[in-house]
Request: fold
Amino acid sequence: MLYVAKYLNELYRRFYALLPVPAKSAQSTNVIDLPVSKEDTVIPFREYPVASTSQCPSDGTVELALELMKNDDAMCCFLHDVRAAITHKNFHFYYDFSDLTAEQRMRFRATIKLLQDGYLKNCGYSGTKLFGEVANLHTVIDFLNGRYLEIAIAELTEKTLATLAAENNFQYSLIRNGTIRQKNGRHNEFDLILDLNDTIRIAVEIKSGDVFSDYEKYVTIGNTYNIIPDNFILVQSRLSEKSAQRIGDVCGYCVCDPAHYTAIVQDMVLAQLSAPCTATTDELVG
Reply:
């Protein structure tokens, strides 16, 4: 019986040795697939189809978003605690802001007052302690989780483009949450897409909070759409100027905090408008 088993094992071994080795599946790697056709690799970013279902917020919401961004030094720890509580489905908060300076406390209270217009409820103070609840609405949760910074940066971008267009005579549109689709069906969403004269596009991604660290992700995306280094900006709150420089040096794209964004996007827009026009898809493919 043992002899028969050894015979069969040897037979199976010889049989499988004759089978062709299967090719390694592309799906078995962790590398994001890039477009493989010649057309997909040469399509300029400006020629990809783009769609957006995002609507412009009201002036009141824009005002609140700008206040949160402007007062980040006074609000950041409160927002961090609120986000953590929301993650655990806890909408009650009890926050001690005694570490803030007297000037920061004034701005903190003023911003909290604005947030009580539907975002926070049942708020009260006990000395330097704030208690209350976050409204359990998806619009509120989305806003506090970072949507506010997207709205604020969009407002800065709109004002910057309007000023530059009046001074330099060009047409522009600002696309919020624009989805870029490739021919192979893949797509990416950018928080903002600046369209200049229907010939130039600049993409902007916005990150609030202090937990984002996957900067390599935008190297891959940027190379896919050929938008780095000159047509992409990553804006991240609570990022020092030196940190932004280090990240930019490593990743090869522009990184900044909200305070430096206006100057950077202005310089990028003017540089792109003055650059020689690039070839069209037909010229590249043909």
